[in-house]
């Protein structure tokens, strides 16, 4: 076990774990919002901290060369330990969410494993406003609008859904506005969800 009564050990642990933890946290906010247990993710924290260290060390060296007789100020250390990993985590999360690297690899005929574990996370994590038809297990159907006021759970054990606006059906399958009322649907009731462009509702109501 590390000797945490030793100041050097504390600094080393801090340097090897915290940057990777911060990077992982902010990257996760662009994906599922979930993180592994810290005990399971410790190795990835070390790896990310090592990569970040390779970027940060030249910056630290440059700061020390500028003022060799003056210690690096605390605020600069805080930027290096927290702000830098935050920016890197956001950047990695954004790149993963937009699938920029995946698209590039696909262009060269490489098909990597997707970073998102489920179709639910992939669809709802990056979805713009949509009209939806939700079919329940008893074959009941609801038509609705999913926008910023809707909510799709990111918890893999509770995939419930809140639709901010429910529509009625016309005789010719039109989307008929019936006022503002939403609907919560429990995860174990959902069978399928169909997605349609919002323009469908506007066209049908013209």
Structure description:
This protein has helices at 7-28, 38-66, 74-98, 100-107, 119-125, 199-204, and strands spanning 130-136, 141-146, 151-152, 161-163, 165-169, 175-177, 183-185, 190-196. The model has no long low-confidence stretch (mean pLDDT 83). The protein contains six helices and eight strands. Helix 1 (7-28) packs across helix 2 (38-66) and helix 1 (7-28) runs parallel beside helix 3. Strand 5 (165-169) and strand 6 form a beta hairpin. The chain has two domains: 7-106, no CATH class; 119-204, SH3 type barrels (Roll), CATH 2.30.30.100. 47% of the residues lie in helices and 17% in strands. By secondary structure, it is α+β, with helices and mostly antiparallel strands. It has a five-stranded antiparallel β-sheet with strand order 6-5-2-1-8. The chain crosses the membrane at residues 12-30, 42-62, 74-95. It comes from Celeribacter halophilus. This is DUF6338 family protein. Keywords: Membrane, Transmembrane, Transmembrane helix. InterPro entries: DUF6338.
Provide the number of structural domains: 2
Query: How much helical structure, as a percent, in the residues?
Result: 40-55%
**Alpha-carbon Rg, integer:** 24 Å
Give the strand order, joined by hyphens, for the main sheet.
6-5-2-1-8
Element-by-element helix/strand order? HHHHHEEEEEEEEH
User: Rough shape?
Assistant: elongated
Based on secondary structure, the structural category is alpha+beta
Report how far apart the termini are: 71 Å
Q: Report the mean per-residue pLDDT as an integer.
A: 83
Biggest β-sheet strands, sense, barrel: 5 strands, antiparallel
What is the helix tally? 6
Low-confidence stretches: none
Number of strands: 8
Range of strand content: 15-25%
Transmembrane segments: 12-30, 42-62, 74-95
Organism: Celeribacter halophilus
Protein name: DUF6338 family protein
InterPro entries: DUF6338 (IPR045919)
């Amino acid at each position: 076990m590390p000797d945490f009564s030793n100041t050097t050990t504390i600094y080393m642990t801090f340097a090897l774990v915290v940057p990777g933890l911060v990077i992982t946290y902010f990257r996760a906010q662009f994906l599922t919002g979930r993180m592994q247990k810290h005990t399971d993710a410790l190795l990835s924290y070390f790896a990310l901290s090592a990569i970040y260290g390779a970027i940060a060390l030249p910056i630290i060296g440059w700061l020390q060369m500028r003022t060799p007789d003056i210690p690096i100020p605390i605020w600069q250390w805080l930027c290096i330990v927290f702000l830098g990993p935050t920016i890197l985590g956001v950047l990695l999360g954004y790149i993963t969410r937009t699938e920029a690297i995946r698209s590039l690899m696909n262009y060269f005929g490489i098909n990597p494993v997707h970073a998102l574990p489920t179709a639910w996370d992939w669809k709802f994590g990056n979805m713009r406003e949509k009209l939806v038809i939700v079919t329940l297990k008893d074959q009941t159907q609801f038509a609705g609008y999913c926008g910023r006021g809707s909510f799709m759970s990111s918890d893999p054990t509770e995939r419930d859904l809140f639709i901010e606006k429910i529509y009625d059906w016309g005789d010719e399958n039109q989307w008929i506005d019936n006022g503002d009322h939403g609907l919560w649907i429990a995860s174990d009731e959902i069978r399928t969800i169909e997605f349609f462009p919002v323009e469908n509702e506007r066209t049908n109501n013209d």
